[in-house]
Amino acid sequence: QVHLVESGGGLVQAGDSLRLSCAASGRTFSSKFMGWTRQAPGMEREFVAAIDWNNGDTWSANTVKGRFTISRDNTKMTLYLQMNSLKPEDTAVYYCGAGGGPRSFDYWGQGTQVTVSS
Predict the structure, then answer these.
(1) Are 13 and 117 in contact (CB under 8 A)?
(2) Three-class SS of residue 84?
(3) Fewest Cβ atoms closer than 10 Å to its Cβ: which of 7, 29, 99, 115?
């Protein structure tokens, strides 16, 4: 089992920045990839970004490229999502995931709310 705990969400204005964190514990060695997805009210969950925990390769959705940056700290077993130039359409619950592929997660955190006001 991999246990994931997100933090860092909040209410910000359009154009502001936020950094989400996801602390991982448990059998983390079993999950090569970690990433972020988000779900807005009434919408399906969508992929945001992912990272290969070992070599640092990253993937991002077109909607966030150039604004969001995913990174990890191996020593702290923590995943980050730096979100800049936030837009109202970025409002969603953001979930941290871990699994065997960049878009295939087996474990999920509880989610953290990000609200961007216009």
Answers:
(1) yes
(2) coil
(3) 29
Query: Which of 81-113 are b and which e, b meaning 16 or more Cβ less than 10 Å from the residue's Cβ?
Result: bebeebeeebbbbbbbbbbeebeebebbbebbe
Q: Sorting pLDDT into bands at 50, 70 and 90, what band is 102?
A: very high
Residue for token pair 């970690």: 34
Cβ pair 98, 42 in contact under 8 A: no
Q: At 25, is the secondary structure helix, strand, or coil? A: strand
How far is C-alpha 19 from the chain's CA centre? 10
Residue 30 pLDDT class (50, 70, 90 cuts): confident
CB-hemisphere CA count at 13 Å for 50?
Answer: 18
Tokens found for residue 75: 């020593």
Pairing, β 46-52 against β 112-117: unpaired
In order of 13, 14, 66, 87, 97, the CA distances from 105 in angstroms are: 30, 30, 24, 26, 5
- Is there a contact between 20 and 90 (Cβ–Cβ < 8 Å)? no
